[in-house]
Structure formats: structure tokens, C-alpha cells
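User: Batch of two.

Assistant: Item 1 of 2:
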Amino acid sequence: MEGKNLNLSIDGYVYCFPSVANYFGGDIVSGLLYTGIYKKEELSAFIDIGTNGELVIGNKDFLVAASGAAGPALEGGISKFGMRA
């Protein structure tokens, strides 16, 4: 590629969102910020299903979150008393 001017620059932004807890990651945090349910009057639910399943229910007055293993990578990984075969 000698003699060619290759302009490979790409303009854009990269956002990194931190995890809140072990199974409550940056993907659900970014989703909450994007949807803005923490500012709304009405009750809303936000669900993210991946390797972990996360659920947030709430509004501007409160947010309640729950999470658990949802994909094959962690199946049974957090079971305390066994699981069905």
C-alpha cells in the first residue's frame, strides 16, 4: 500500500459503565440511564436477559433490582442445594 494515503480515523465515543454488583453489570446500568425510568412517575420494568437475567422495577421514587443466572455458562453455578438433571 505504498504511496496511498489511508485515513483510518473514525470519530466516535466509547462509554464504559461500571457494574453495581456481581450480577448487575454495566449493560443494565446503561439501559436504565437510556430509558430514564429513574425519572418517571409511572411504574416501569426493565429486563436484560443474557448470561445473567436482570430485572429492575421502579420509578422516580424507588428502584428494586434482582438478578440470577440465565444462560448455560452459569447454569447451576449459584445453586446452593442442587438442581434438577
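Item 2 of 2:
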Amino acid sequence: MDKKFAELSFEEIMKQNERRVHYHIHRLNVRDPHKEFYQEGLVAMWNAYEKYEPDKGPLATYFNYSIRNRMIDLMRKKARALRNDEVFIEEEKKKMDNGNRSCKDRLPLLDFSDIPVDDRSVWKHVRERLTDNQWKWVASFIILELPLKEIARREGVTVEAVKSWGKQARKKLRDAKLKEKLLALVEGA
């Protein structure tokens, strides 16, 4: 350790070099309302003080290197956490959308889980409310669970056309009156 630093305690060295931490916070354009970066800079300074080897260079240079790199690491950690939060929020939104990803207003489909899927009379009633193309979408996408590309290939149309069929079918399936009729049909059977 430098002779002049060997006689000083860390508190004295910290007071002399505290401005380095503020310099790097400013230099990296960091907003630090909770003083996290300031604390990280002090910890980096402490670690540099403890690990310092005088034959490898001046202590001030080692302080600068340590403080700056610790702050960059903290910035990366915060950015990674923010990205992970955004991914989690997006996944939760998808769950709330109930699979209705192509609708711009993001209204969820009505929950038809209480209506038996294997009841032909229910599907017959749904079929009566839809056009031929809308029914093709329901039969292929909902009942058979085929991907849109496969439906488009089978029908000889574009994927966009199949999406359009689905959009129009969803509008009709969202109708609360339809659900009431279907429930009455199931309960009456």
C-alpha cells in the first residue's frame, strides 16, 4: 500500500475519495434517488482498499476502475431485472387475454368451459350463427386445434384471411345472448 495511505484509516481515505463515487454516478448518467449506486461505490472503494497492491499501480486509479465497474455491473443487474419483469407482465397479460391475441382491443373470449365441447347440438347452434368461413375457423382452430398456417393451406387462402374469419367469429361468440342460449340448450338436454 502507498506510504501515505498505510497510515490512514479507511474512513479518512473515504472522506478524501468520496467525490470519486459522485463523479462516476454523474459520468454514467445514473439517477440515484435511493443512494444505491452511492452505496455500491463505497463498497467498491472498500474492496479496492482491501485488495490494493502498490506494485500494480496507484490506488486512485484502482479506486476509479473498481467504482466504475461495480456501478456498470449494478446497472446491468437492474436492466436485467427490468427485462425479466416486463417478460413476466407480458406473460400475465397473455393469460388474461385467454388466447385472444389477434384482437386489437384485447377483449377476452367469453368462458365457454361450462358448455360440453362434445355436445353436437351446441355446435349445431353455434354453426347456425356463423358464416361458412367463420365456421371453418371454429371447426379447425378451436375444435381440431390446427395452426392458422395449416388451415390456410387446407382452404387455399392466406393466413390473414383465416385470421379475419377468426376475428369475425370471435365477435359473434362474445355475444352474451349466445352464451345464454347455449347454456339453456345444455341445461334443457
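The chain has two domains: 3-97, 120-188.
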